[in-house]
Amino acid sequence: MKNILVLGAGLVARPLVQYLLDQPDFHVTVASRTVSKANELIGGRSNGRALPFDIAHDSESLGALVAESDLAISLLPYVFHVQVAEQCVRHGSHLVTTSYVKDEMQALDGAAKDAGVILLNEIGLDPGIDHMSAMRVIDRVHAGGGHIKAFRSYCGGLPAPDANDNPLGYKFSWSPRGVVLAGRNNAQYLENGGVVNVPNARLFATHFVMWVEGLGDLEAYPNRDSLPYVDLYGIPETETMYRGTLRNLGWCDVLQKLNQVGYFSLEEHADLPGKTFRQATAELIGLDDTPDLEKKLAAALNVAPHSGVMMSLTWLGLLDNRPVSDKKTYLDVLADQMLVKMPYREGERDMVTLVHDFVAQYPDRKEHIVATMIDYGTPGGDSAMARTVGLPAAIATRMILDGTIQLTGVHIPVLPDIYEPVLGELEQMGIVVAEQAETV
Questions:
Q1: 187 and 283 assigned to the same domain
Q2: Same domain as 368, residue 238
Q3: What is the pLDDT of residues 236-249, one digit of tens each?
């Protein structure tokens, strides 16, 4: 019997836990701050148990939980992953996370190898399926004597077309604070051999419309720093390296103006709670009162009073006389309001879209390769986001414990030993990154 510790019972946990509970000879412990959520995931299964656990206030018991486990899966906020990893190294347990590798995690590589354990990170969707499906193409091109001349990668979690019914083309099933925070980032990428730097103030303005087969037109904008992926993917020959985020049409123009007007600010204002949205928005553009606010806001944003942007801001409620939430920053007030206005309703489904676009140069030809994945959630069941984040981690967990993956140290899924079997099983479950190639 293999013992697996799952830390956290959030939105991506259900398909992961169910997969593990369905495996013979696995016992699954779900430890969560909200034990009722853990109990719901276990569902009375005899090979599972739920425990109350809050790492922020009970870090001493973490070691005991890890010590009795062959492998720990951390679905906690990323700031706790290194703490879990240190205990895994100490007690000889493997670790799986779906989060990006930070420097502190990478520093444990030697100790993990000495302990004979793997600390496998970035094994979700983005990061995760994006890495694996990209490396499958890159390694095949290299093996065939080719070189990658350009690589563009895009990913987005969106409402399915049948649930896309608001002006921003987006919905939340969790707190949107992280999504709004990401809008504060700068970005950079490689384009035709030159580095393009995108300051935060221009992030959403630097978008373009791209066509995705099966979906139509979507907006794409740069996702943080793409340059490290040149080395990470082993393609020093590439002249273009771009990682982008996908959204439905309309999102970027609205987010650009929200940033411009000041709704992305994290500066605290003690007097913000108690104001109305109309008062808060007026103060952001330097007004003491709110007469003719619509016209003055449109002028401040350099858009027409009846433009799509103004209609969206009005729909969001940012010009209403309703009070803002009890938060003290404009970003948090905006995030709270987005959650009120943009939730998934009962029976609606989400969608995950991943697109890789390669130009490969061979001695005798040039190829354009497009790899696309579109996955839909199940109304009343698992979301596409939960499936595509949770299942790769669950599959990798099984493969580590059954010996299919035998690596040690700190890893992400860019090696064939990891991505080949994981992608193979995902395809059996209907999560397929389909490839098309044509000579150009």
A1: no
A2: yes
A3: 999 999 999 999 99
For residue 140, give every residue at least 6 positions away whose Cβ sits within 8 Å of its Cβ, in sequence order, or none: none
The answer to whether 12 and 30 are in contact (CB under 8 A) is: no
16 and 104 share a domain? yes
Q: What are the pLDDT digits (tens) for 268-278?
A: 999 999 999 99
Does some domain include residue 436? no
Residue 65 lies in a domain: yes
Nearest to 258 by CA among 343, 171, 316: 316
Q: What residues make up the domain containing 80? A: 2-121
Which CATH number does the domain housing residue 270 bear? 1.10.1870.10
Q: What distance in Å separates the CA atoms of residue 66 and residue 86, rounded to the nearest whole number? A: 10
Q: Which among 355, 356, 431 is positioned nearest to 392, based on CA atoms?
A: 431
In a domain, 425, yes or no: no
Distance, CA of 198 to CA of 211 (rounded, Å): 23
Contact 73, 9 (CB under 8 A): no
Catalytic residue among 58, 109, 126, 130: 126
CATH number at residue 30: 3.40.50.720
Place of tokens 């499936």: 387
Under the banding of pLDDT at 50, 70 and 90, the label for residue 404 is very high
User: Residue 329 has what pLDDT?
Assistant: 97
Residue 8 Cα to chain centre, angstroms: 17
Q: In terms of pTM, does the model score above 0.90?
A: yes
Pairing of strands 94-97, 118-120: parallel
Residue-wise pLDDT for 123-149, tens only, equals: 999 999 999 999 999 999 999 999 999
Measured in degrees and rounded to the nearest 5, phi and psi for residue 75 equal -105, 20
Locate tokens 């206005």: which residue?
Answer: 341
Asked if 114 is an active-site residue, the reply is: no
